[in-house]
Amino acid sequence: MGRIERDLIGEMEIPEDAYYGINTARAMENFNVSGRKVHPEMIKSLALVKQAAVDANMTLKLLDRKIGDAIYQAAGEIAEGRFQDHFVVDALQGGAGTSTNMNINEVVANRAIELLGGRKGDYSLVHPNNHVNMGQSTNDVYPTALRIAAIRLLQPLSESCAELQGALQKKEAEFAGVLKVGRTEMQDAVPVTLGQEFGAYAEAVSRDRWRLYKVEERLRQINIGGTAVGTGLNAHRRYIYTITERLRGLTGMGLARAENMIDVTQNADVFVEVSGLIKAAAATQAKIAADLRLLSSGPRAGLGEIKLPDLQAGSSMMPGKVNPVLPEMVTQVSYQVMAQDLAISMAVQAGQLELNAFLPLITANLLPAMDTLTNAQKLFSRRCIMGITANKDRCRELLDSSISLVTVLVPHVGYEKASQLAKEALETNSSFKKVLLNKGLFSEEELEKLIRPDAAAKAGIIER
Hints:
The protein has 464 residues and is mainly α. The protein contains 18 helices and eight strands. The chain has helices at residues 22-30, 40-59, 65-79, 98-115, 128-132, 138-174, 194-219, 237-251, 261-266, 269-295, 325-349, 359-383, 392-401, 410-413, 415-427, 432-439, 444-450, 453-456, and strands at residues 3-6, 11-14, 179-184, 187-193, 221-222, 256-257, 306-307, 389-390. Helix 2 (40-59) packs across helix 6 (138-174) and helix 10 (269-295) runs parallel beside helix 12 (359-383).
């Protein structure tokens, strides 16, 4: 037998052991759509906001200390990850996050009631709206919590970028002396070293890391205290400043009250910016993964210039086949993050007048994207990049058989003559060096000096 709770719609029976209440129960019925719950980091961040709010209200003597202490303890337990099973509202929900806010209000209230010795549902002791939500609105609580959650997930993402960058830099040094064919538009171009290729990957990841580090500054501007539309109606003037100070202490973040809280309440463009930078990091990762798949292709009928770690059998019917499963996984993660960015962009654009009703969609895509990309980068670094080896013989074989060194002759014979020599080497299936010697254009000593691959992988003109 459950307990009976009432709201403006009517009555509902709530399971006796449930910490949530009638508002949450109605949301469970109305939004049973995706099977995904609100991200745990969002719940923890909301609990921190509730802690800061009750602390501010007690400091200003707006709330009875006994009730406030129970609320503070209950919210603190949730911020530590307890009671996650009672946050049951679907991630995709109407109401701009009101159902999530009420879910946490009810869980905090019922846990506080329990701490005070009462029975769940006895809101005469602690009320979800009057006490837990005092001085607040979903419209300032939810976006503030989302910013806190995003900052908390940005930190491990930045660290995973740093780890990926470091792994690539180690390979840059390890492969510094491995000469190979450089390719543009999938065709032979000029020589490079394998180390130079990995060094370029590392630089791209470094830029992603820096951009993610800097965007945290924009997330620190919060609208808590702005209540419904950013004007601060029904919030004590001193409360608006006090809660921000308390949140800084609880989170350890440099949070600041937004100068224009109406702006921060109605406009969510900062999440497009954050998502765009995450998408950029995903695009970088996907490009590297695609290159690794190509460079490792074969192993005998493809390029085969590098070897990826053998992680698992690649086929249920082809013995000996090993697939590039980590780059494939990383590519899929990257595409998923890019798709989530589109959903975030559309949700931000769809906000109307004083509020964006689609913040739950932003939350449902932004936080998982950060989690997934962080995890993918760690696996990419540890189980793929660090185990890559160079096939030096294959790199040299392809370099010697290509015409990629023809470009070094342009300063000495001109573009047209160099083109003719390259064409003849291709048509006769001869080595480029043999064609040059047959033409008598260079002595063998001059040719050795000119078409040294190690010199061709550096800046400048090779002198005759």
